Amino acid sequence: VGINAAESLVLVSDRLNVSIEDLQELRFFADLGGVGAEKFDSALEGLIKRVGELKRGSGELKEALKGENDALLNSLRVATDARSAFLIAADAISQEEDATKRAALAAAFFGRSLGADLINPLLEGRGAIEAAAREFRTFGGLTDENARAAEKTGDQFQKLATVIKVNFQTAIIEAGPALEGFTDFLKDSII
Questions:
Q1: What long-range pairs does 88-94 form, CB within 8 A, spacing at least 24?
Q2: What pTM did the predictor assign?
Q3: CA atoms of 59 and 50, how far apart (whole Å)
Q4: Which of 17, 84, 93, 176 could disulfide-pair with 122, CB 3.0 to 4.6 Å?
């Protein structure tokens, strides 16, 4: 994983309040199902937002599930983090036999377009997610500590690049009169 990828993990992890380890594992699961990291991050962000609204007693998810599945609503209300909410959503989608209701559930959890993208990967439910997470852990992934260290290294490289750029521009500006004379010399020499 490069510095830019580690920086991205830290930014998304902080924005969504999900651990770097969980984010990598969930992204790996989604990627195996054909859903790229950006789409998955947006879907997870939507789920977190909807569960947050549900916990406040409002929102699309509450309206979609009210009266239909009170047990699911209660499970989501007590979800303590993004991963557990995602696993609850996966179980609900995988256990729904009616394809139209499954699509409606996915849309309620993740939004219309992103929900549709996640239906197929989620058909196997929690077991498939946990299996992908176990497999990912065998690869080694980044720890929170390593990703944050890489982010700081990236920041230092950015500062170094800025120092070099500013000093190079200053040197060129200061050398302007000499370059003008050298350009005139070459022009006169060639003609």
A1: 89/47, 89/122, 90/122, 90/125, 90/126, 90/128, 90/129, 91/125, 91/126, 93/118, 93/119, 93/122, 93/123, 93/125, 94/122, 94/123, 94/124, 94/125, 94/126
A2: 0.74
A3: 7
A4: 93
Name every residue whose Cβ is closer than 8 Å to that of residue 143 and which is 6 or more positions away in sequence: 20, 21
Q: In a structure prediction context, what are the per-residue pLDDT tens digits for the chain, which is 191 residues long?
A: 456 677 778 888 888 888 889 999 999 999 999 999 999 999 999 999 999 999 999 998 998 888 878 889 999 999 989 999 999 999 999 999 999 999 999 999 999 888 989 999 999 999 999 999 999 889 887 666 666 666 565 565 556 556 666 767 777 777 777 777 778 788 888 86
